[in-house]
């Protein structure tokens, strides 16, 4: 079976694929608007602390569990002796990757539409664009089709090859847009807002928003890193690979802000526009630049590539389960997952103005009201269940299968992890303390806060 699962051909290929999964709309679309809504530089500071203190230990955790078992999330838990209760975690992980894929592909479809409108110079109101049923469903189908071209091939020919090409292109494009943005008149105010923290703006909500963004962005709690870890050879260093993934992911998020905020301030716009920040404000900004239609088309191409490197990993999680457990071929598994996600994506696509009942649909949880089918999906699968999966994996490894087995796995390619002492303690001991105590406690507080427990 190992042959049909495939394996990454190189450490670079693994890092590019895993970073590609982590680098997505979460960095370039979600991170800037959350930063704008939560106090600019103060949010960035708290976010970096979350990545370092919670994100990284959990990343080691998931990659090592995948490589140790050579299985998808469900197989990894089964192989390590999980009972029915602990299996809730990996089953939810499959659900997270699949259901987020369905509505994330809708947003990715919008980026394709905006490549076209930017390039041709067509002025379109984002509200009208979202409400055009045929356009949004057509773009969703097109985006899912592009995914299938990549995922139906084996790991080293498909995901690895695509990531090796797409990720460097992504970095170059981000850099070009940043150069244009920071050289605008008045851009300095945006850079200051973004990079100089005003610590008076930090409150409990800043911390909680930052942590949920850290999980969303780094693909923690999706089962993706367990799945990708299962394709990693024993010779590679999990520590170095994880550090690279965290560095690239955080780097692109920070660059995402540098593309957006200098331009927002240069044109006298407000930074706290929410999820529509990128689609509503940036086209105006590009229109005012010389050669703006080319820059705009490039920017939305960039967004589409970022989305693509993430969605191919989302298809991989349920896909690898079908290959491992049901003995399906990669091709069949990819087709079934992609078409099912397309069908479930249709109501999400129609819930932004195209169909009234889906647009005005409401969910009320402990006084927290969420409206529209897509936003409900995002809260349930893209926020809440990601946290719950991360908590399950954390507690399962910290307390049920015990950290010793994972430490052994991490040490396989990084012997210093459990031998080199700093002030009398090893990295493995620090990691164990975080996995057993710090991470579960922090995640639990975040989950409770989602339900307004702290007011």
Can you describe this structure?
The chain has 455 residues and is mainly alpha-helical. The chain has one domain (2-450): Amino acid/polyamine transporter I, CATH 1.20.1740. Helix content is 74%, strand content 3%. The chain has 20 helices and four strands. It has helices at 2-5, 11-22, 25-37, 41-69, 73-79, 88-120, 126-130, 133-151, 159-182, 187-195, 204-218, 224-229, 238-266, 277-287, 292-325, 330-349, 356-359, 373-400, 403-413, 427-450, and strands at residues 362-365, 368-371, 421-422, 425-426. The strands form two sheets. A two-stranded antiparallel sheet has the order 1-2. Strands 3-4 form a two-stranded antiparallel ribbon. Helix 8 crosses helix 15. The termini are far apart. The model has no long low-confidence stretch (mean pLDDT 88).
Give the key terms:
single chain; 455 residues; mainly alpha; Amino acid/polyamine transporter I; two-stranded antiparallel ribbon; 20 helices
């Amino acid at each position: 079976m190992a042959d049909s699962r495939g394996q990454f051909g190189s450490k670079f290929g693994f890092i590019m694929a895993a970073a590609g999964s982590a680098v997505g709309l979460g960095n370039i679309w979600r991170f800037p608007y959350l930063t704008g809504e939560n106090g600019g530089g103060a949010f960035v500071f708290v976010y970096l602390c979350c990545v370092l203190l919670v994100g990284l230990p959990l990343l080691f955790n998931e990659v090592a569990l995948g490589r140790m078992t050579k299985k998808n999330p469900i197989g990894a838990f089964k192989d390590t002796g999980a009972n029915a209760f602990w299996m809730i975690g990996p089953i939810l992980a499959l659900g997270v990757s699949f259901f987020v894929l369905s509505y994330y592909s809708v947003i990715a479809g919008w980026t394709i539409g905006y490549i076209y409108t930017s390039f041709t110079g067509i002025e379109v109101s984002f509200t009208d664009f979202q409400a055009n049923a045929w356009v949004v469903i057509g773009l969703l189908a097109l985006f899912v089709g592009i995914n299938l071209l990549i995922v139906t091939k084996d790991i080293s020919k498909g995901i690895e090859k695509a990531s090796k090409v797409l990720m460097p292109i992504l970095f170059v494009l981000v850099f070009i847009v940043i150069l244009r943005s920071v050289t605008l008149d008045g851009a300095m105010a945006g850079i200051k807002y973004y990079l100089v923290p005003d610590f008076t703006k930090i409150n409990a909500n800043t911390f909680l928003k930052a942590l949920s963004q850290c999980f969303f962005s780094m693909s923690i709690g999706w089962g993706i890193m367990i799945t990708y870890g299962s394709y990693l050879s024993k010779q590679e260093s999990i520590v170095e690979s994880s550090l690279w993934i965290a560095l690239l992911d955080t780097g692109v998020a920070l660059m995402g802000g540098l593309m957006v905020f200098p331009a927002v301030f240069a044109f006298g716009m407000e930074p706290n526009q929410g999820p529509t920040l990128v689609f509503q404000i940036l086209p105006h900004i590009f229109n005012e630049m010389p050669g703006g239609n080319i820059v705009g088309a490039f920017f939305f191409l960039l967004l589409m590539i970022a989305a693509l490197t993430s969605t191919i990993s989302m298809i991989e999680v349920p896909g690898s389960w079908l290959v491992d457990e049901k003995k399906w071929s990669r091709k069949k598994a990819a087709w079934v997952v992609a078409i099912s996600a397309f069908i479930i994506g249709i109501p999400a696509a129609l819930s932004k103005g195209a169909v009234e009942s889906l647009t005005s649909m409401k969910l009320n949880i402990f006084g927290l009201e969420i409206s529209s089918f897509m936003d409900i999906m995002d809260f349930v699968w893209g926020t809440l269940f990601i946290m719950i999966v991360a908590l399950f994996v954390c507690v399962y490894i910290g307390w049920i299968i015990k950290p010793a087995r994972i430490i052994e796995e991490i040490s396989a390619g990084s012997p210093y992890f459990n031998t080199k002492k700093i002030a009398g303690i090893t990295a493995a001991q620090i990691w164990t303390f975080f996995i057993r105590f710090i991470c579960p406690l922090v995640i639990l507080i975040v989950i409770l806060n989602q339900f307004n427990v702290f007011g």
